[in-house]
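Progress note, sequence design subtask.
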């Protein structure tokens, strides 16, 4: 759950922006069928199996539109839900429920989809020391929601943004003139409290990264045999991350490596939504 400060400073402005995108002047459809204030109630129903996530954001949409709105939840973030399950009842001005419905569901469906997909991948690593983490391959202006959903699904968060840590990728290395030079420059420039991670693609780069004192070495798009060789060479002198097109379909093949982290952009860029509906709206 987002704390009050995060909610007001970082979450509310994004929700308001989403509502403004959907309502430029008025909700013509809602105002056509409901000319005056009228209290109503609707059911939040799950239409398939998954992991629910984003309930606080769902509720916040209606609260921003009208503080008198209320949601009675029967589930909490992280719960497994099933087809046909009643998850909540939403009450408030019917016009508010109608104009906030799609934005609220968009957040809830997207976040639940990410949490569900993450849970399916994280479960493969249970019993190992390896932690599944996300990447910065998130939907613009939805990173805070998607990274939260990854955590609810049982994964962890890699750096939040470019200001969050030093990660030297292929183009950084190319710009600097090599792995050793890039690490040397990063150590000189960055604060001592930040770890330095470097992306490598072959054994020569692995050796340079170890010699230069990288804190984390990411093995990117290497074969299983190459990764095993690299892990043996690193021998605990740096934390190890494995990355490169990791999905639900192939993560099991990486579980035996015993690395510290496996990162997957698919958690946020390829997870399908969880089908959820707001149904049975009626006056009360």
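Output:
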């Amino acid at each position: 759950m987002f704390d009050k400060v995060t909610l007001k400073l970082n979450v509310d402005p994004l929700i308001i922006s989403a509502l403004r995108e959907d309502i430029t002047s008025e909700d013509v459809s809602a105002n056509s069928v409901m000319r005056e204030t009228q209290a109503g109630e609707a059911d939040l129903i799950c239409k398939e199996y998954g992991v629910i996530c984003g309930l606080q954001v769902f509720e916040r949409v209606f609260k921003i539109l009208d503080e008198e709105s209320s949601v009675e939840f029967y589930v909490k973030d992280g719960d497994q839900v099933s087809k046909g399950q009643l998850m909540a009842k939403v009450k408030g001005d019917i016009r508010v429920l109608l104009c906030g419905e799609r934005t609220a569901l968009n957040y809830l469906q997207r976040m639940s989809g990410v949490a569900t997909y993450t849970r399916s991948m994280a479960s493969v690593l249970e019993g190992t020391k390896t932690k599944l983490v996300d990447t910065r391959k998130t939907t613009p202006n939805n990173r805070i929601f998607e990274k939260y959903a990854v955590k609810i699904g049982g994964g962890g968060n890699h750096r939040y943004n470019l200001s969050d840590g030093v990660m030297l990728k292929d183009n950084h290395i190319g710009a600097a003139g090599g792995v050793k030079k890039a690490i040397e420059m990063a150590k000189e420039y960055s604060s001592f409290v930040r770890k330095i991670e470097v992306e490598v693609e072959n054994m020569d780069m692995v050796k340079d990264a170890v010699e230069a004192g990288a804190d984390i070495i990411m093995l990117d798009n290497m074969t299983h045999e190459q990764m095993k060789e690299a892990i043996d060479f690193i021998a605990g002198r740096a934390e190890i991350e494995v990355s490169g097109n990791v999905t639900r379909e192939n993560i099991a093949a990486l579980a035996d490596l015993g690395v510290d982290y496996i990162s997957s952009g698919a958690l946020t860029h390829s997870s399908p939504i969880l089908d959820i509906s707001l149904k049975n709206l009626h006056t009360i």
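The CA atoms of residues 244 and 264 lie 7 Å apart. Work on this subtask will continue into the next period as scheduled.
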